[in-house]
Design a protein that fits this description.
The chain has helices at 8-11, 39-45, 80-90, 104-112, 123-130, 132-141, 180-189, 242-255, 287-292, 299-307, and strands spanning 29-33, 50-54, 68-70, 93-98, 149-150, 161-165, 175-177, 194-198, 204-211, 217-224, 227-229, 232-237, 259-268, 272-279, 324-326. The strands form four sheets. It has a four-stranded parallel sheet, sandwiched between helices. Strands 5-8-6-7 form a four-stranded antiparallel sheet, sandwiched between helices. Helices cover 25% and strands 23% of the residues. The N and C termini lie far apart (43 Å). Helix 4 (104-112) runs antiparallel to helix 5 and helix 5 packs across helix 6 (132-141). Strand 9 (204-211) and strand 10 (217-224) form a beta hairpin. The protein has 355 residues and is of the alpha+beta class. It has two domains: 8-131 and 202-326, D-amino Acid Aminotransferase, Chain A, domain 1 (2-Layer Sandwich), CATH 3.30.470.20; 148-198, no CATH class.
Length: 355
């Protein structure tokens, strides 16, 4: 299938200076799973490689930024990994990159068995980071800062706290509790396993990182959280903060992360920095590290180069700070056969006019 026409704004996020062939001259494909609405990520990869988008929903908009869009079985279906293996063989895929949390552990097991070239951590790390309480325990064992956290029924040293699902995402079902009575109420109210965590009273940051296949951090780019909706940052600013850069590097190298990872932290006025989440995938504010990266060093470019067999040198802390991003919605029109019509409501805007 021919690649669809892509939004100009997405094209502007990347350059076209990366060959899509490996060291043996073969075409390189990248398989992105659970693409959903992450059109920004899929279109950025499509500048540098043949992209296969796997998502069972035919209306998932990010499927239409790929060269090939494929429906696959559910993640919990035994046929899921074999279906991905077939796609890898058909499209010369040398990198499998998940865009959601849901299949990271499945891909980690498949990687460990030599079945998929997945850019994911080892299975035990994938499992621990998917459970926020297990992630807290893991961070403590590694000597990394995590705010005081307890399970329901355990002693809580102070209030207020946050009652949050252990496997939540998108800021779903997170509630502030100012005393023990409120905490007990929300523990019973949320219909899934929860934990109780110190409410971090200070600014929130995210650190977007990329690691190579040996677990070395290639770069760590911190950003502020000016505004978020549903747990996803829609406004933020890339900042030069050496403490956060170093923390991002320490976290992913201690965990042995492969590929992208986003570390979420707060600076609390009492306890200082605390890590509240580690997502071993691209973060919600993917454009931030794209805009901040130096030429030839965007995360999709680096992943494609690793898929080609290149050995990359770490360049931690080398990025453009001061870049602010603000995000918006767009849409696609599909015909009766769910094919893009290439018809837009308005033409994509050009460069801002000087005032």
């Amino acid at each position: 299938m021919a690649a669809p026409e892509r939004h100009l704004a997405a094209r502007d996020l990347a350059t076209n200076d990366v060959s899509v062939r490996d060291v043996n001259g073969r075409d390189v494909g990248v398989l992105l799973t659970g693409v959903g609405k992450r059109y920004d990520i899929v279109s950025a990869f499509a500048q540098h490689a043949t992209v296969v988008a796997a998502d069972p929903n035919p209306l998932a908009p990010a499927r239409y930024a790929a060269d090939h869009r494929c429906a696959v079985p559910r993640i919990d279906d035994p046929a899921y990994v074999p279906a991905l293996e077939q796609l890898c063989a058909e499209h010369s895929v040398r990198a499998v990159v998940p865009l959601t949390d849901l299949d990271i552990e499945v891909l980690a097991h498949a990687r460990a068995r030599g079945r998929l070239p997945a850019f994911v951590p080892d299975p035990e790390i994938a499992r621990a980071t998917f459970d926020k309480y297990e992630a807290h325990l893991l961070l403590e064992r590694l000597g990394l800062p995590s705010p005081p956290t307890a399970l329901p029924g355990e002693r809580v040293e102070r209030f207020p706290v946050m009652v949050k699902p252990r496997q939540g995402s998108g800021a779903r079902s997170i509630h502030r509790a100012d005393d023990a009575h409120a905490a007990e109420f929300f523990v019973n109210y949320v219909r899934e396993p929860v934990m109780v965590q110190w409410l971090m009273d200070g600014p929130e940051f995210s650190i977007d990182t990329l690691s190579d296949l040996r677990g070395r951090c290639l770069n760590a780019i911190p950003r502020t959280m000016i505004e978020s909706r549903g747990g996803e940052s829609i406004k933020g600013k890339v900042i030069a903060d050496g403490e956060l850069v170093d923390l991002g590097r320490r976290v992913v190298e201690a965990l042995g992360v492969r590929g992208p990872c986003t570390v979420q932290v707060f600076r609390d006025k009492e306890i200082g920095i605390g890590i509240t989440d580690v997502n071993t995938r691209f973060g919600g504010a993917f454009p931030a590290p794209m805009y901040a990266a130096l030429p030839g060093r965007t995360f999709p470019e680096l992943i494609v180069r690793m898929a080609r067999g290149e050995e990359l040198e770490p360049h931690v802390g080398q990025f453009r700070a001061g870049i602010t991003f603000t995000r918006y919605f767009w849409q696609l029109e599909l015909d009766e056969q769910l094919r893009p019509t290439a018809r837009d409501i308005v033409d994509p805007p050009g460069p801002p006019r000087p005032r």
